[in-house]
Design brief:
This protein is α/β, with parallel strands linked by helices. The chain has a single domain, classed as Rossmann fold, CATH 3.40.50. Helix content is about 40%, strand content about 25%. The protein has a four-stranded mixed β-sheet with strand order 3-4-6-5. A two-stranded parallel sheet has the order 1-2. α3 packs antiparallel against α8 and α5 packs antiparallel against α8. It is globular and about 50 Å long.
Length: about 200
């Protein structure tokens, strides 16, 4: 397994996380980009993009994926819906925070530093690329347990506000924290995750 990651800190963290994995010797992380991996033609049986395809320019990325996939190989781009289904008020506040974030980026002229492709349309580029003989979206569901602290850590890790120095009040994270403490609390409760997997067969 070869992981391609352009950010040195992220590569370092990934290496640290697999140190005790039983197959550590077969796991490698390399510097590279989605559209310029540096891997040889037809070397991969499977290529995946986990919670990341929306950061990649689709045309050049899919061409690179098709180049490194063997004939009959599989590409899978998968994302989970965030936040997980826990309580309607957490959903509403998370949606409002996302919308407010986009508004702040536009208001402050920061849009040129941020490019995201829509997650809910990521099957379209696979179909339109001409690189895959079959494409499909598969929906999966999973139940986990978590408390308010874990929920807030997850929401912070997926937020971009720190890169633009927005305050918690500006994006409404303070209200989200208060609601998480109220509706989840310090004891783990069930979280319902939905995953969307877009697959393409070369």
């Amino acid at each position: 397994m070869i992981g391609i990651e352009p950010n040195a800190d992220m590569r370092k963290e990934a290496v640290r996380k697999v140190e005790d994995h039983p197959y550590t010797a077969q796991i490698e992380y390399r510097e590279g980009l989605a559209h310029r991996t540096g891997l040889p033609d037809g070397c991969a049986d499977i290529v995946t993009a986990a919670q990341s395809f929306h950061w990649m320019e689709p045309t050049s990325t899919l061409a690179e994926i098709a180049r490194i996939l063997r004939a009959g190989g599989l590409f899978a781009a998968y994302d989970y819906d965030t936040p997980p289904a826990i309580h309607w008020e957490l959903d509403r506040l998370a949606q409002e925070g996302s919308l407010r974030f986009v508004e702040l980026v536009q208001e402050r002229g920061l849009a040129h530093t941020l490019k995201i492709w829509p997650k809910n349309k990521s099957l379209d580029p696979l179909r339109e690329s001409g690189h895959f003989r079959f494409t499909r979206e598969v929906l999966l569901h999973h139940i986990e347990q978590g408390d308010a602290a874990r929920f807030l850590e997850m929401m912070q890790s997926s937020a971009l506000s720190y890169q633009f120095q927005f305050t918690e009040q500006e994006i409404g994270f303070d209200r989200l924290r208060q609601a998480a403490l109220q509706h989840i609390g310090s004891e783990p409760i069930p979280w319902y995750f939905s995953y969307r997997v877009r697959i393409g067969i070369k």
